[in-house]
Amino acid sequence: MNRMFIEPLDVLMFRSERPFTSRESHVAKVSIISPSIFDGAIKSKIFYDFCKNRGYSPTDFQRSKWENIKNFKKRICEKIKNDAELRRVLKVIGYPIMEGKPEILVRGVFFAIKQKYEEYFVMPNDIVKEDKDAYEKIKHGKSVNINPVKIEPKENINVNVNCGTPISVLVSKYLHVKKEEGFIHFNELKRYLEGEVPREKVNAPFLKETRIGIRLEKNRKKTIEGYIYTAEFYRLLRSWGFIAWFEGTLDFMPKKGLIKLGGEGRGASFERIDAKNLDFSDLIKEINEEGKFKLYLASPSLFNRGWHPPLQELKNLLGVEELKLVSSLPGKPVYIGGYNFALNMEKPLRKWINAGAVYYFKFKGNIREDVPNPIKILNDNIEMRCGFIGRW
User: Fold this and answer.
1) Could you give the CA distance from residue 363 to residue 139 in angstroms, rounded to a whole number?
2) Does pTM top 0.90 for this prediction?
């Protein structure tokens, strides 16, 4: 898997889906850290650098608020008619009028320690701990020993839940449990996919920082009385950054440099680093012998049915004869939208399943040994960029 290390130079803002107006809702909340944010940042870097080198203005490729979509597409087609390199760049970044899928795709974004370049993944939802008020607090970013347990589905327990599909009960050795929070190292993730329980974790390697602001008039840049607000930002702990996994080549992007990231276009440095070997062929053989697997989502995912992966698409991808969803731990949904620069309009706000979700499946036949792990399914209504198959 191709990788890029990204280190913020300042605090970062990733706005939540909550509507924000300075007077009525005085706190601008932060949202989850989604791969689509980094996907857009990388493509914007490529596009803006190209425009700067070739003398184009980026706004020339943006639809005005009053411009008809048909006229906009016609105008852009005229612009790229005699510029093969421009067409190539627009195709690479997946510009709206270009046919086919973008040639660059960020599969996942994970917290990482600088120079060590080691990814940390969201704790899976099926790893829990006993719910005790006296549970010891753990300092941010410090690796500690944990004693969690793994919950598993039990199919011989009758349950009547009206959710559209038969679901088995998930049980634990503890009577009262709560989700184990934090992040696990890639080596711990491999242990987890082998059916073991992670032994070590780190707490969230960031702090939430609030800053005060005041609304300004658009044209005059004059403060408006009564419109003071508070905005939340992420501040990563020292020596922490992000590793982005991506597909495709970055021929139009330097190996290192600066990039704008998140709301307000805060600065960050980036550097392409060595690719990661993701060979799970032996694990696939073990899963085929058992006839069951669990799917762990390492990145937020969008499903057309809302809460579980599409069985037919997943069945076709894996190459199995039959596929049955046994149980699931999707967790609390999150809402992700965005902004389409080219069309100059908001992207629709849709309900996503957050990273950490776990789904349990049984199957007949064999999973193809050449199936990549992590897997992906992408179309108009499904966006699963990074899902790992493991044992349960």
Assistant:
1) 42
2) no
CA terminus-to-terminus distance, the chain? 25
pLDDT in tens, 34-55: 898 899 999 999 999 999 999 9
Under 8 Å between Cβ of 232 and 212: no
DSSP 255: S
The answer to whether residues 361 and 317 touch, using CB atoms and an 8 Å cutoff, is no
The span from the CA of 269 to the CA of 160, in Å, is 52
Distance CA 155, CA 153 (A): 6
Dist. CA 316–CA 161, nearest whole Å: 28
CA nearest 392: which of 302, 272, 290, 303? 290
> Which helix (H) or strand (E) element contains residue 282?
helix 281-290
Fold of 281-390: Immunoglobulin-like (2.60.40)
User: Mean pLDDT across the stretch 331-344?
Assistant: 85
Do the beta carbons of residue 76 and residue 97 sit within 8 Å?
yes
Residues 6+ apart with CB under 8 A from 116: none
pLDDT tens-place string over residues 132-166 = 653 444 445 555 555 788 888 876 665 555 555 55
Where are the CATH 2.60.40.4350 domain residues in the chain?
A: 281-390
Q: Which amino acid is at 312?
A: Q
The more confidently predicted of residues 56 and 22 is 56
Q: Could you tell me whether strands 383-390 and 240-247 are parallel, antiparallel, or unpaired per DSSP bridges?
A: unpaired
Q: What sign does the CA torsion over 228, 234, 235, 237 have?
A: positive
Residue 264 has pLDDT above 50, yes or no: yes
Cβ pair 60, 79 in contact under 8 A: yes
Burial class (CB in 10 A: 0-12, 13-18, 19+), 60: exposed
65 three-state secondary structure? coil
Token pair 């990145």 is found at 299
Residue 24 has pLDDT above 50, yes or no: no
The token duo for 382 is: 């499904």
pLDDT, residue 136, reads: 47
